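User: I'm putting together a teaching handout on how multi-component assemblies are represented. Below are the sequence lines for each component of a complex, exactly as they appear in our records. Could you produce the 3D structure of the whole assembly as structure tokens, so the students can see both representations side by side? Please keep the chain order the same as the input.
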Amino acid sequence: MTGHGASVLPDEAEAFQGRPAGLVSRSVAAVIDGGVVGGALLAAYLGVSAALFAINPRGFTFPQSLGLFSLAVAWALAVVYLTIGWWIAGRTYGCAVMGLRVVGRGDRNIRFLPALVRAGLSTFFPIGLAWCAVDRKARAVHDLVTRSHVIYDWRHREE
Amino acid sequence: MTSSGVDPARERWVALADTSLGVASVMGRVTVRVVRRTRVVATPVLRPLARPPLVPDRWQPPTLADAFRARGGLVRDRLTIAFLAVLDRLLPVLVEQVLARVDLTDVVRRHVDLDAIVAGVDLDGVVARVDVEAVVARVDLDAIAAGLDVDAVAARLDVDAVLDRLDLTDLALRRLDLVEIVNAVLANVDLATIAQQVIDEIDLPDIIRESSGALTSDTVRGARMRSAAADQAIGRVRDRLLLRRHGNGTELPTMTGAAEPPGPADRP
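Assistant: Of course. Below is the structure of the complete assembly, with chains in the same order as your input.
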């Protein structure tokens, strides 16, 4: 949408595009991503239940929580989801909703390994996100480790 | 001609004729009476005279009468031939002169019942005997067409009525090569320019903004703006605390509203 001055970006949002996103925006995006992962887990749980029912309808009972295993599955799923999102598109669904993008040096998409490390850290140590409220460049702990940062980028979807 | 309208010459001729007829009538009657009175007496005397004695047969009155009749017949034939010859020569001239002096059309119109004549004519039979194709073949249609005022004819034509009787859609679909037409139209149309003009006219960016999907709906945009404003507020608090801790008296630039950037300290 360039060349004709036709951008879907509201005028009032034009000013802070490309600048570091703060704690609130990133937290909302994280909550949305958590909802996505939770929904995926629920869907997986229902799918497994449906499979068990199909295999043995008479003796079917809903699978019981397996404690650490469930937690590990949830963590792994979240890591995979966040890694792929940041590596491929620079954003997860939560980031897309909030108009955020994870970038590395030169505002380019981060590579696979930094994306994987970042996903692992952000899920294993989510409170590290709070550091962006203190950091002058609004970087969280996993940003500092992987030398990445999160910017406002509402325009990215339309480019 | 007198004041009473009677021609004096004609009057004299009529009087003379009447007088002659009167005299002739009287003489005729007198003669008939004399003959009737004297017939009885004269017949015995005259009868022998019809076939006189001592006169040869060739000179007898009946023979002479026959000879005279035969000669008279020959003369009559010759006169008839001569009269017809004269008539052949004279009649055309006379008729021509008569017609020159008489309005024949007016005479026919006044004295002839043309309707009765036409009613008695078998027009269907006449038309059936007419070779129309031969008639048309003798007609110079090109000359007639050249003389026609086609504009005047077309002006009287009710084009709407003609079009109402036609199924133009069906005609167009059957007779027109639509692909060819569309290609020709597209070849003459600068679609890029038109599209650019349309975009310029209708403020497409605004429409896209208003009709974008869920991610750019008003709800999402509002959430983004409010979150950005909250980020900005947190950034201001952080900057204030950091400045106080470092004893730096520099004033932070004011930021009003969510439309402002999150702050210079947040810039990458």
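A couple of points students might notice: The two ends of chain A are 7 Å apart (CA to CA). Strands of chain A lie at 100-103, 149-152.
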